[in-house]
């Protein structure tokens, strides 16, 4: 797999114009123009850069994941360093919007260097892009306009701090708009919850617990064609509980049924539920129920 350590090497590979700054590039479509098009296809690649792009597809259709989206209004896509990128030439399109790429070292020494890692949307898949309303799009574009002004001006000792401050504002607005999207797309979110519960139930019913142990969030997310972070964030917004909390609650419910069988020891119940170490099962059960598995049995007089 190809990996690009510098922004200039990454842009050169894509066939895009070189940047005005060694660690920062800003491309913006203006007037009747379009964004510069990168190479038509690429095998899996990685790089050490962050990317924030507003995509407005003017010509052609685009499928993200297993879902077809309408990006006429625009969608923000966030890519973190070392995320695997791959695309083919099956779709031809023209696009407006903007694309900001910056090396992770560009943020060194700033508070944003730490804060940016807390924005979970950098871990979302591309089919979980942020869909902007016209008003939101205008707000984001005004920030990018100011970033571009600083980027193109003769740079001085204040330029980097100003650009980082503007990037910080852009990400804070994006975080606000994602919160709005989770609320506005309740039907999709509820459907995702139902799918997750179905996958979880299927895993438990198939008897894979004893063989494979606790279900992998990554595997479930992959089967649902979403990223782990997006799945967990969506469930959190809908139910107040994360992905792992849902799995733990499902395990505890299963445990209650098995504990009703008095001929099984606590250790046997733990092994049946995929726990390699029974004490871990007991701690989880007590954490969720407030009593230990053995106390649960005593409560229902099932010794």
UniProtKB/TrEMBL annotation:
Q: Could you confirm whether the keyword Transcription regulation appears in this record?
A: yes
Q: Does the keyword Transcription apply?
A: yes
Top-level taxon: Bacteria
**One Pfam match:** HTH_18
Question: Do you know which Gene3D superfamilies this protein is assigned to?
Answer: Homeodomain-like
Keywords attached to this Swiss-Prot or TrEMBL record, sorted alphabetically, are: DNA-binding, Transcription, Transcription regulation
Residue intervals of the HTH araC/xylS-type domain: 198-299
GO molecular function per UniProt: DNA-binding transcription factor activity; sequence-specific DNA binding
Enumerate the SUPFAM superfamilies for this protein.
Homeodomain-like
Report what the protein is called. Answer: Transcriptional regulator
Look up and give the organism this protein is from. Answer: Saprospira grandis (strain Lewin)
């Amino acid at each position: 797999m190809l990996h690009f350590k510098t922004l200039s090497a990454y842009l050169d590979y894509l066939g895009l114009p070189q940047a005005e700054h060694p660690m920062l590039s800003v491309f913006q479509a203006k007037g009747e123009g379009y964004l510069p098009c990168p190479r038509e296809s690429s095998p899996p690649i990685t790089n050490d850069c962050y990317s924030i792009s507003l995509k407005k597809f003017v010509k052609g259709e685009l499928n993200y994941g297993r879902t077809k989206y309408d990006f006429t209004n625009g969608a923000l896509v966030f890519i973190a360093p070392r995320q695997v990128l791959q695309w083919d030439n099956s779709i031809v399109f023209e696009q407006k919007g903007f694309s900001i790429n910056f090396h992770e070292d560009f943020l060194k020494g700033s508070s944003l260097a730490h804060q940016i890692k807390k924005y979970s949307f950098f871990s979302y898949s591309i089919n979980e892009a942020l869909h902007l309303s016209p008003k939101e799009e205008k707000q984001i574009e005004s920030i990018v306009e100011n970033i571009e002004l600083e980027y193109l001006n003769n740079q001085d000792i204040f330029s980097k701090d100003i650009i980082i401050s503007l990037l910080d504002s852009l990400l804070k607005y994006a975080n606000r708009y994602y919160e709005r999207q989770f609320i506005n797309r309740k039907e999709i979110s509820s459907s995702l919850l139902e799918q997750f519960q179905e996958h979880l139930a299927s895993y438990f019913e198939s008897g894979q617990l004893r063989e494979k142990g606790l279900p992998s969030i990554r595997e479930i997310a992959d089967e649902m064609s979403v990223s782990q972070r997006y799945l967990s964030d969506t469930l959190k917004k809908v139910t107040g509980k994360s992905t792992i909390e849902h799995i733990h609650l499902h395990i505890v419910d299963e445990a209650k049924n098995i504990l009703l069988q008095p001929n099984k020891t606590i250790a046997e119940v733990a092994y049946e539920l995929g726990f390699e170490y029974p004490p871990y099962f007991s701690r989880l059960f007590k954490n969720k129920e407030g009593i230990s598995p053995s106390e649960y049995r005593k409560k229902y007089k099932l010794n």
